């Protein structure tokens, strides 16, 4: 997948010649994968007996477990799409609960990056709890540019955290980085997680929310807590809940 390298900010004049890219239709499922997104092992369990590699578009997303690292994930991953109003209401409630949870641990962050922000629904909801925080949004689609145009975010970044042009721009810049239903959908969640920590200032807070708004059983990265600790973080919540908050230790290189 290719992205348009683009940043749009209220803080800077727009680059002449840039335009909002068209937003492609989003499929219901991401591509089926043969290996574990967390460790790369191909020893996966959970597929129906006798099922082999999917041909063409799959019709179901199944929960699979890696036999090596025990990571559990939906395969193919669910992707954002037009949602039922009940699901959207569930998403809004999840956003409010997450904002409250972060407010208890980090009440006055100056800067916040919402990763995979889409239309920036979370920054819009969180503003009630963080009126003085500057929210930026990152998304692989041009939806974030629309969100910037209606001032839901201060700065719009198009791409992924692991894209070089994004990583350079966000390095150690934010007090909070949030990832809602994001790690479940990216090809390399560990690399994205490390890149998210790279965007945090020392002492900054990471919010990972894996609650599935479609009320499906949440699929939790088994190695998330261990990976956060290995990367120099203190996990402030349980690692098996729907929402994980961690602090990047000041001594993290
Ligand atoms: Zn694995």
From TrEMBL:
The species this protein was found in: Streptomyces tendae
Keywords associated with the record: Methyltransferase, Transferase
Pfam families given in the database record: Methyltransf_23
Keyword NAD: no
Family annotation (InterPro entries): SAM-dependent_MTases_sf
EC number(s) from the headed UniProt entry: 2.1.1.-
Protein name (Swiss-Prot/TrEMBL): Class I SAM-dependent methyltransferase
Transferase found in the keyword field: yes
GO molecular function: methyltransferase activity
Enzyme's top EC category: transferase
GO biological process assignments: methylation
Entries under Gene3D superfamilies matching the protein: Vaccinia Virus protein VP39
